């Protein structure tokens, strides 16, 4: 069971002061967060790609590379790379370079992205949303397969037997598919034999179990080895010494961020009752003391089949010290509880076979 962190490197106004920190400050903070995550024994750190003022990381590979030489073990991934509006050649080159700097710890999490700012920025039409992703994923995987590439599509100039460099340390360079729970994307990942990441940020996480089974069914149908296909979740949450403290610290920035997105997307108001319902044992918020959060992660593993858990923190802007403490608690207290119980449970399951 792998456990780690994901972040969107947000620079929203501070809930109490209204102050907005600079993109530079927040990026520097995230590098420190990655270094700490490595020091406390976490397995993975993911940085999301966005192209708007309230998010500081438009180039996850560069942020991750800044931390790569200061870390030893933690794996480093995008969360996600908006592949539809990117050039797969450049994406591969960036992450192969990160793989070299980190000596084989880079991963790509490819997704369509839930924000659309990158499409007009890079000259793409949203009517081609689906086709762009399919075509660019095909090219990315072709580059991963072979040093020399011949390829032709409808949205990028053709490539005629050209080399793409550098080649990564890992062969193959891991490529995951990020999904918000769309059945087509889950099936695609399974058919391609690519690891799957589910954004479990609302409702009951148990609702995602049928999607995991659908993914595995598609992968088995295509002849892939299910034992080599991990499934990850990316879920909002926060950890403090007590559950009450965690809730009080995490709610204000979460409410602000969710209501801002709600105004953009036509969602209803996010209030304390919504927050409290989501942090219940069956909810999608992983907020609480270490034991509370560990129990929910164990529940997710046993009932949904998740083999990698990524706690998304912060949501909105929170004090850097609070975020660092949450990372420390996840690595030093939550992860050992989860790993011990999952190891025991898996041992019992094998013994029953």
What does this entry show, briefly?
With 353 residues, this protein is an alpha/beta fold. The chain contains eleven helices and twelve strands. The strands form two sheets. It has an eight-stranded parallel beta barrel with strand order 1-2-3-5-8-9-10-12, surrounded by eight helices. The chain has a two-stranded antiparallel sheet with strand order 6-7.
Descriptive report:
The protein has 353 residues and is α/β, with parallel strands linked by helices. Helix content is 46%, strand content 16%. It is built from eleven helices and twelve strands. An eight-stranded parallel barrel has the order 1-2-3-5-8-9-10-12, surrounded by eight helices. Helix 1 links the parallel strand 1 and strand 2. The chain starts with a strand and ends with a helix. 44% of the residues are buried. The mean pLDDT is 97.
What does the secondary structure layout of this molecule look like, with pairings?
Layout (H helix, E strand, L loop, with lengths): L1 E6 L15 H17 L4 E4 L12 H9 L6 E4 L2 E2 L5 H14 L4 E6 L6 H4 L7 H17 L2 E4 L7 E5 L11 E5 L3 H10 L3 E4 L9 H13 L9 E9 L3 H23 L6 H7 L7 E3 L1 H15 L3 E5 L7 H33 L1
Parallel strand pairs: 1-2, 1-12, 2-3, 3-5, 4-5, 5-8, 8-9, 9-10, 10-11, 10-12
Antiparallel strand pairs: 6-7
Helix pairs in contact: 1-2, 1-11, 2-3, 3-5, 6-7, 10-11
Give the helix level as a range of percent.
40-55%
Q: Hey, roughly how much beta strand do the residues contain? A: 15-25%
- Largest sheet, spatial ordering of strands: 1-2-3-5-8-9-10-12
Structural class: alpha/beta
Strand tally is 12
Number of helices: 11
Shape: globular
Q: Runs with pLDDT <50, length 5+?
A: none
Radius of gyration: 20 Å
Write down the oligomeric state: single chain
Rounded average pLDDT: 97
Mind summarizing the main beta sheet?
Answer: 8 strands, parallel, barrel
Distance between the termini: 21 Å
What is the chain-wise order of helices and strands?
EHEHEEHEHHEEEHEHEHHEHEH
């Amino acid at each position: 069971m792998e456990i780690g962190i994901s972040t969107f490197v947000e620079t929203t106004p501070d809930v109490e002061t209204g102050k907005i920190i600079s993109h530079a400050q927040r990026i520097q903070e995230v590098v420190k967060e990655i270094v700490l995550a490595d020091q406390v024994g976490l397995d993975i750190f993911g940085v999301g790609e966005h192209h708007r003022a309230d998010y500081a990381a438009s180039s996850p590979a560069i942020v991750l590379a800044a931390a790569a030489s200061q870390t030893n073990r933690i794996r480093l991934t995008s969360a996600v790379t908006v592949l539809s509006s990117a050039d797969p050649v450049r994406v591969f080159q960036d992450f192969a370079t990160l793989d070299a700097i980190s000596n084989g710890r880079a991963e790509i999490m490819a997704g369509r992205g839930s924000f659309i700012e990158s499409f007009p920025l890079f000259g793409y039409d949203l009517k081609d949303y689906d086709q762009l992703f399919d075509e660019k994923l095909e090219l990315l995987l072709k580059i991963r397969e072979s040093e020399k590439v011949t390829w032709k599509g409808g949205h990028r100039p053709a490539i005629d037997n050209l080399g793409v460099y550098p080649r990564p340390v890992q062969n193959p360079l891991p490529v995951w598919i990020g999904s918000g729970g769309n059945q087509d994307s889950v099936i695609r990942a399974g058919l391609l034999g690519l690891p799957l990441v589910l954004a479990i940020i609302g409702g009951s996480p148990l609702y995602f179990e049928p999607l995991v089974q659908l993914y595995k069914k598609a992968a088995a149908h295509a002849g892939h080895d299910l034992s080599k296909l991990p499934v990850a979740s990316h879920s909002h949450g926060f950890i403090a010494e007590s559950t009450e403290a965690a809730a009080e610290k995490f709610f204000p920035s979460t409410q602000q961020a969710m209501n801002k997105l709600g105004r953009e997307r036509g969602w209803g108001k996010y209030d304390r009752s919504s927050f409290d319902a989501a942090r219940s044992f069956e909810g999608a918020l992983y907020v609480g003391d270490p034991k509370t959060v560990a129990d929910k992660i164990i529940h997710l593993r046993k009932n949904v089949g998740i083999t990698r858990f990524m706690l998304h923190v912060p949501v909105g802007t929170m004090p850097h010290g609070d975020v660092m403490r949450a990372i420390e608690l996840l690595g030093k207290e939550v992860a050992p509880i989860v790993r011990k119980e999952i190891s025991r449970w898996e041992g019992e399951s094998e013994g029953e076979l």
